[in-house]
Fold:
Amino acid sequence: MLHAETYLLEAKWEGAKTPAKDLRNFQGKLEEKAAWARGLFVSYSGFTDEGLDAFGRGKRVICMDGLDLYEMLDRELPLDVALDRKVRRAAETGRPFERISDLFPR
Structure:
């Protein structure tokens, strides 16, 4: 639970970038839960551009990659601050993934 929001987490620590089918599977799991639950999908290697496009917009899933995790640690950003910014951008654009480096320019 983060800021009174319930997040379900899925993490992939694989060499290949995550395709749309993995995001869709996670979205399906999320849809079986309460309507107020959100999802955080962490993929160490990132996501394919085709996968993010095919996954679509307006879902309850927020995506992070390994570089996001590095940037959070390097900038000493708390997870709740990073997620708040990612959620805000997703609400504005409908896109599930935006880089931490773009959300918090130096």
User: Anything to note?
Assistant: The chain has one domain: 7-103. The beta strands are 7-12, 38-43, 61-65. Residues 79-93 form the longest helix (15 residues).
